[in-house]
Amino acid sequence: MELQDCPPTGRRWVWDVWVVLAVGGLTALTIVGRLADASHPRWVGLDVTIGIVSTALMVLVPRRPVPAAVALAVLAVFSPAATPASTATTMGIALRLPQRTAIIVTAIQIGAHLVQGAWRPIGNLPFLWFAVLDVAVHVAMLGWGQWIQARQQLLGNLLERAQRAEAEQGRRVAEARTAERTQMAREMHDVLAHRLSLLATYAGALEYRPDSSPEKLAQAAGVIRTGVHQALEELREVISVLRDTEIEEGPGGRPQPTFGDVEGLVAESRAAGTTVAYDERVDEATSLPPATGRTAYRVVQEGLTNARKHAAGHPVTVTVTGRPGTGLRIALTNPGSNGVPLAPGSGTGLVGLTERVQLAGGTLDHQREPGGGFRLEASLPWPA
Q: 69 exposed, middle or buried (CB, 10 Å; 0-12, 13-18, 19+)?
């Protein structure tokens, strides 16, 4: 256990002056009071000298408590003029030192005062009563100081725990915020990658089929315009979240996809020119948990997006089967890459999708087929 903190350096001298003045006043009163006893006038010179020395030693108590206390105990053996300083030091020791050290030093001071009482007794006070008062005063000082020290330590521990709890709470909030941002970034990757791949498909059609009818060209341009608008809205949402601003909820808010939106996702890909064979054999689809349905939607979305990027113009087969109690299984196959991707990718889509499926309690497998194609399979839990 360390010593208690002293007053700030800028005010320490003020503290020392007040302590010296208080102890000096009590010492002077002690010397004057003992002059009334006829047997003590011959000790005046010694008492004054010891009184001055003991008062000066009070300055060392905050810095060197044990040596100062022992020195004052030795002085108290020879003169009662050292009693005020020695008794005050008992309180200082109890406030600053561990209990065992404080008890030892207090015992030394009690013994020194008992020797003083036997050598220079107070006129009308029997030695037995002097010993009782001596022990009582020093024990009271020791107990009071130790109680104050324990209380200060308790308050300090409570303050430290409160600060630690506050810091821990701040860390948890930061981790939760980071997790939310990561989840939002994953959602935006899935949505924007799908949206931009559709735009790239329509833009490619405009580039390579300039001889299309005006109606088809206008339709493709309209799809591109709508897709760009939707992509900008979704990008605005993720930027707002990353800036810690709230997204306004309302009719214009983007709802989370469900399993029922998979057919619309397939239709959107077909409208973009991708041949998609969709086979759905799902029993009691309405009982599918929303989180599982949303994960299934993202799996199909990522598979169609990758097919448009790496195998544009080739057919894609999507099979979804499942029932309560057996789980939901998704299989997506398409031919392998046919050259340069239609749109650049970050290479993190399947990594994020794997993490998403694992968080949902499922498994994801993607691999090259022997004939050069690509296969994506996901298995998601579906409790009965």
A: buried
The CA-atom distances, in angstroms, between 108 and each of 118, 139, 242, 260 are 16, 12, 68, 87
- The one-letter amino acid code at 174 reads A
Residues with Cβ within 8 Å of residue 246, at least 6 apart in sequence: 240
Angle 331-335-339 from CA coordinates, rounded to 5°: 135
pTM for the model: 0.44
The CA distance from 314 to 334, in Å, is 7
- CB-side exposure of 160: number of CA atoms within 13 Å? 6
Q: What gap in Å lies between CA 93 and CA 97, rounded to an integer?
A: 6
> Where would I find the beta strands (DSSP E) of 73-121?
none
SS3 category, 360 = coil
CB count, 10 Å around CB of 376? 23
pLDDT tens across 37-68, in order? 655 566 777 778 887 888 778 777 777 888 88
The widest CA-to-CA distance across the chain, in whole angstroms, is 133
Instruction: Give Cβ neighbours of residue 92 (< 8 Å, ≥ 6 apart).
Output: 61, 62, 65, 69, 145
What is the Cα–Cα distance from 239 to 151, expressed in whole angstroms? 51
Q: How far apart are CA 222 and CA 286, in angstroms?
A: 34
Q: What does the alpha-carbon distance between residue 242 and residue 60 come to, in Å, rounded to a whole number?
A: 59
User: Consecutive sets of 10 residues in the chain, 384 residues long: mean pLDDT of each?
Assistant: 43 59 75 64 75 80 80 82 81 80 85 80 77 84 84 86 80 72 66 68 67 72 71 66 47 67 87 86 88 89 82 86 91 71 56 81 84 85 87
Q: For residue 329, what are the β-bridge partners?
A: 321, 379
- Find, among 220, 205, 224, 226, the residue nearest to 342 by Cα: 205
Instruction: Tell me the residue type at 219.
Output: Q
Q: Would you tell me the crossing angle of helices 65-78 and 44-57 to the nearest 10 degrees? A: 170
Please report where in the chains the tokens 């105990």 appear, as a residue: 73
Which is nearest to 377 in space by CA: 368, 315, 245, 41? 368
